[in-house]
Amino acid sequence: MKTNLVVATLVIALLSFSSVGQVFATGDFSVTSNCEEISPGTCGSAIITVASIGGFSGTVSLTATSDNSVITPHLNPTSVSVPSGGNANSTLTVTNTCNFNQNLHCIADVTVTGTSGSLSHNVVVFVCVGKNCPV
Fold it and tell me: What is the CATH number of domain 34-130?
């Protein structure tokens, strides 16, 4: 009887020790856009949606960067609170300093990145301002 008790105590101690220091994931989130392109005749702005996956809930910080310095992205708000099983939205708009005397249009890829703790996801939105934008 003493042997069984010692073995059972050892197994419980090992199981308890194996979970010490581990970080258990509490879900994830996705970042999507309702528009693939912001340009004349398509979307004037894009709705960026951050959606809970697998029970994620928390604050997601949003940043937007452009690969063309004449097109500046703006997000409102820049941080969203995502409920478990739900979603939250931010609006992406752009301003530009494109020189239309030299160009018919200016284009850019705008990357919107959502970050919460160690989680990070992004979506890319194509932007064209001016005339004769490529489709």
Answer: 2.60.40.2310
What is each CA distance from 65 to 76, 123, 131, 132, in whole angstroms? 14, 11, 23, 24
pTM of the model: 0.80
Residue with token string 């160009």:
103
| Pair of tokens at residue 14 | 């090992």
> pLDDT of 27-81, one tens digit each?
999 999 999 999 988 899 999 999 999 999 999 999 999 999 999 999 999 999 9
13 by Cβ neighbours in 10 Å (0-12 / 13-18 / 19+) ranks as: exposed
* Side-by-side strand order, sheet with 71-76: 28-33, 46-53, 87-96, 71-76
